Amino acid sequence: MQIIFFLLAATALISGIMVVIQVNPVRSALFLVLNFFALAGIYLLANAQFIAAIQIIVYAGAIMVLFLFVIMLLNLRQPEEGGAQQHLGQKIFGATLAGGTAALVIYTISKIKLPPGKEMVEGFGTTEMVAKSLFTEYLLPFEATSILLLVAVVGAVILAKSRLD
Amino acid sequence: MVMPITYYLALSCALFAIGVIGVLIRRNAIIIFMCIEMMLNAVNLSLVAFSDYYKAIDGQMLVFFVMVVAAAEVAVGLALIYVIFRNKGTVYVDELNIMKW
Question: What does B47-60 look like in DSSP terms, one character per residue?
Answer without folding.
Answer: HHHHHHHHT-THHH
